[in-house]
Amino acid sequence: MLRVRLPTLALLLLFSLTFTANASAFPQRFKEAPQFYNSPDCPSFDRHDPDSESDGDDHTIIFCSDQAVHVAMTLDTAYIRGSMAAILSVLQHSSCPQNIAFHFVASASANASFLRATISSSFPYLKFRVYTFDDSSVSRLISTSIRSALDCPLNYARSYLANILPLCVRRVVYLDSDLVLVDDIAKLAATPLGEKSVLAAPEYCNANFTSYFTPTFWSNPSLSLTFADKQACYFNTGVMVIDLYGWRAGDYTSKIEDWMELQKRMRIYELGSLPPFLLVFAGNIVPVDHRWNQHGLGGDNFRGLCRNLHPGPVSLLHWSGKGKPWARLDANRPCPLDTLWAPYDLLQTPFVLDS
Ligand SMILES: *[C@@H]1O[C@H](CO)[C@@H](O)[C@H](O)[C@H]1NC(C)=O
Ligand SMILES: *[C@@H]1O[C@H](CO)[C@@H](O)[C@H](O)[C@H]1NC(C)=O
């Protein structure tokens, strides 16, 4: 903990104000989160399970266990503050926090040992692994979208989880980095997927589905038939429960890539990684209660307006859209709901005046 005397504080303040525009100019330091413990009725992992593919301590066993809740998130320096808050929120509201295995995906060009060290220092007890994602393989498939932040290859890592995570992981909850949970993730992870579906997510059938694809798409007779025989609804890809066994069996990664190849040849949609998901899965997903993705809190993509919650209960708040709560809080221009993100912020401010 860094403590400073007041004259120095004034100077530092001046200095930090000059640099807030570019947070990466300062290496961000994060506080240590408290340790979270399982409640007594949580399942424990049997070390001698003959079906287990792994041996060794709990940390190894949990990564293949169906009893664990597997969470996948991407990790990079630009969004790490959001990721830290998301992790803290997952642990804090979980009744079995020690049974959660985190699978972090980082770009192959990122410093994975730095990311690993950052996570470990804030969450010394966290069960996690960091995988690297070869973004060059997807870069060639990315067409520029109307929001450049969406063109980052890591944004597409969610389409490759079945290749990146260990083969023994059956089910995973994918989470974006700009969200916090206020409910037990085990409830979301337990969503029944049934025999036919490989993906569950909240879906929105009142959203104008037409607007996610270009007139080129809708005017093409064979393409527009994609949704002909199903009730296709919009869903947000920031919160998904995925059956990785079923995903691999259906080779959905290739199906998504096929649409991305087509997009390179003829522009069939405007936004980044979402439309290929809709093309492959819309109409075939298991709907999850809307409380699990109160999305759009980042605001309007063009003007950055504040958004309100959708009606109904809330289990997960998602700042999808252009604005991010940490940036607005730093700039002293928070939206009203950003104050709900702030309690999960682990950023260590450079001057701590309390003991
Ligand atoms: C990566 O991070 C580690 C640990 O924080 C650091 O020691 C190392 O110098 C970094 N490597 C590069 C290439 O920046
Ligand atoms: C949906 O969006 C399309 C294209 O953006 C528009 O032409 C159509 O009128 C919209 N439909 C409704 C019901 O708003």
Automatic annotation (TrEMBL):
**InterPro entries for this protein:** Glyco_trans_8 (IPR002495), Glycosyltrans_8_dom-fam (IPR050748), Nucleotide-diphossugar_trans (IPR029044)
Organism of this sequence = Manihot esculenta (Cassava)
Which Enzyme Commission number(s) are on file for it? Answer: 2.4.1.-
Alphabetic keyword roster: Glycoprotein, Glycosyltransferase, Membrane, Signal, Signal-anchor, Transferase, Transmembrane, Transmembrane helix
Specify the protein name: Hexosyltransferase
This protein's GO cellular component annotations are:
Golgi apparatus
Similarity section: Belongs to the glycosyltransferase 8 family.
Topologically, how does it sit relative to the membrane?
A: Single-pass type II membrane protein
- What pathway does the UniProt record associate with this protein? Glycan metabolism; pectin biosynthesis
* Record carries keyword Transmembrane helix: yes
Class of the enzyme per the UniProt entry, highest EC level: transferase
Q: What GO molecular function annotations does the UniProt record carry, in alphabetical order?
A: glycosyltransferase activity
Q: Show the Pfam families listed in the entry.
A: Glyco_transf_8 (PF01501)
- Signal sequence span per UniProt? 1-25
Domain of life, per UniProt, equals Eukaryota
Where does this protein reside within or beyond the cell?
Answer: Endomembrane system
